[in-house]
Amino acid sequence: MEERKLNFLEEIIEADLASGKVDSIMTRFPPEPNGYLHLGHAKSICLNFGLAAKYGGKTNLRYDDTNPTKEDTEYVDSIKEDIKWLGFQWDKELYASDYFDQLYAWAEELVMRGLAYVDDQSQEEISAGRGTIDRPGTDSPWRNRTPEENLRLLREMKAGKYKEGEKVLRAKIDMAHPNMMFRDPLLYRIKYATHHRTGDKWCIYPMYDFTHGQCDSIEHITHSICTLEFDVHRPLYDWFIETLGIFPSHQYEFARLNLTYTLMSKRKLLELVQKGLVSGWDDPRMPTLCGVRRRGYTAKALRMFCDKIGVSKRDQLMDIQLLEWCVRQDLNERSNRYMVVQDPVKVTITNYPEDKVEWFDCPLNPADPEGAKRRVPFSRNLLIERADFMEDAPKKFFRLKPDGEVRLKYTYIIKCEEVIKDAEGNVVELRCSYDPSTHPVTGEWRSVKGTIHWVSVPEAKEITLRNYDRLFTLADMSKVPEDKDYKDFLNPDSLVVTKAYAEPALLGDNSGIAVQFERTGYYVKDKDSTPSDPVFNKTTSLKDSYKPE
Ligand code: ATP
Ligand code: MG
To answer: Which of 58, 172, 266, 300 is catalytic?
Structure first.
């Protein structure tokens, strides 16, 4: 295997193991169940599960479910399905809500130690009182309530005595702290909402900062990996753990994944779904894991991609072509081949008997010529791609032209004898002859410059193709101008539906992954297929000038 440099997280882990700071590794993947997972989450999953696996540790799946109004069991289930599909298995399935009792007990503890208080200010007053980076905040008029009074009020909050927004619980730290996070952060807010797990048991819910670190600590997470925007939260993460004197989990930040021509915000993806701008979370144009799966991207290609992009401490925009390259790498190795004609022109083999059909055994994958075969019929009436014929062809055009020869893939060499056109001058039929002595098995080998794909008309199956392109037209979706909306950049041509004609074996394919339509691209059968109307989604084109560095 190719040796690569350790990334900064591996360096930290190896140092921690070597120094005895930890004796085993425990990580967690902490999704909020408020949407479907996207490619950015795949990066986080590959890191969390990958690091633990590499160092003999384990990874918990912990749902960060502290916001009952946005969360749903539909999302909980899809997240599990996506992680398993990516090829990972969690140790324990846990929920932040499992710890609501413990978190609340810690809140009472902080109150009794004079480190938390109930604040009656409105949300606006609280944010105004916070100050700015260069101006200290001001103390809340409720900051100096006694622990006993705070405890009584907190218990009343919990018992449902107050309305939403009427009171909050805040930590009592330092309203002039240079890190704004320390200016008496909110610990609990009142919310009358039914939680997907705890039902109506609670009407106060803990805030992220009062939840995440303690949950990590309860689970003895050694390396809590998150994205860069959380670096300002880290001191507070540490403060709660130190103040409560609990297991010392540590947080480390890496750069979130951004990809060209798409975006990875669950909120915006949800909006696309709700407004019907895509067919659903699993629309094959979506950057969600269920979307790319339906598009035909493989878990292996995604893992390869996450490995290639590495881990960085600086935000960067990755080229989506690298992901497509990984998909091609994997599919090129594994996918079955079939011939499909998308924009057909009729070819009649005038010297081939009317009622004769020959079946050729063709390899499903050229890398394995002795492996499994598919049977391809050949007859007098064929279809080829319109683009594979040219009447006034330049010298370098090695496909079919008047009086020219070409090899029909897996079969004979044919020669174009006559071009038939309609009244408007469009080519409607090419009358060709075939050379029986060029049979690929029994004939003599004779080489011609061009080889093209084709299908035999009587056995051909009509299929529907959904040709997908990028969802957005702007490469860097973080650069949407202020006077525009991200939806203004939706690509109007991101889906083009066409008909095509396939060799019959395609419909019997049961490989379970995308297949290659020879010379054109990778396609995967869609769940919308019916026996009379098979539908195939375009995964990616066959080739691209793109080369990874
Ligand atoms: P979004 O902004 O899309 O809603 P999120 O960060 O709120 O994403 P969570 O469900 O909280 O979504 O994320 C679970 C984990 O995945 C977190 O640890 C988060 O840091 C990580 N993650 C989310 N988006 C990305 C990304 N683009 N690249 C890498 N990791 C990500
Ligand atoms: Mg989040």
So the answer is: 266
SS3 call for 115? coil
Q: How many CB atoms lie within 10 A of CB 65?
A: 27
**Of 90, 227, 309, which is best to mutate to test ligand 1, by the most ligand atoms within 8 angstroms of its C-beta?**
227
Instruction: Point out the catalytic residue in the list 256, 308, 386, 470.
Output: 256
Cα dihedral value 115, 120, 125, 130, nearest 10 = 0
Instruction: For the chain, give the mean pLDDT.
Output: 96
Residue 35 has pLDDT above 90, yes or no: yes
| Residue keyed to tokens 């300002």 | 232
pLDDT greater than 80 at residue 547: no
> Do 419 and 390 meet the contact criterion of CB atoms below 8 Å apart?
no
50 neighbors 281 (Cβ within 8 angstroms): no
Sort 152 into a burial class: Cβ within 10 Å, 0-12 / 13-18 / 19+: middle
In the residue annotation, 380 being an active-site residue is answered as no
70 pLDDT tier (thresholds 50, 70, 90) = confident
Instruction: Please name the residues in contact with 464: beta carbons below 8 A apart, sequence gap of 6 or more.
Output: 497, 498, 499, 500, 533, 534, 535, 536
Give the tokens for residue 36: 């479907």
At 122, which amino acid appears? S
3-state SS, 404-440, equals: CEEEECCCCEEEEEEEEECCCCCEEEEEEEEEHHHCC
Confidence of residue 4 (pLDDT cuts 50, 70, 90): confident
Q: State yes or no: pLDDT of 252 exceeds 70.
A: yes
Neighbours of 225 (CB within 10 A): 22
Decide if 503 contacts 340 (C-beta within 8 A). yes
Contact present, 384 and 341 (Cβ < 8 Å)? yes
Condensed to tens digits (0 to 9), the pLDDT of residues 80-99 reads: 999 999 999 999 999 999 99
pTM for the whole structure: 0.93
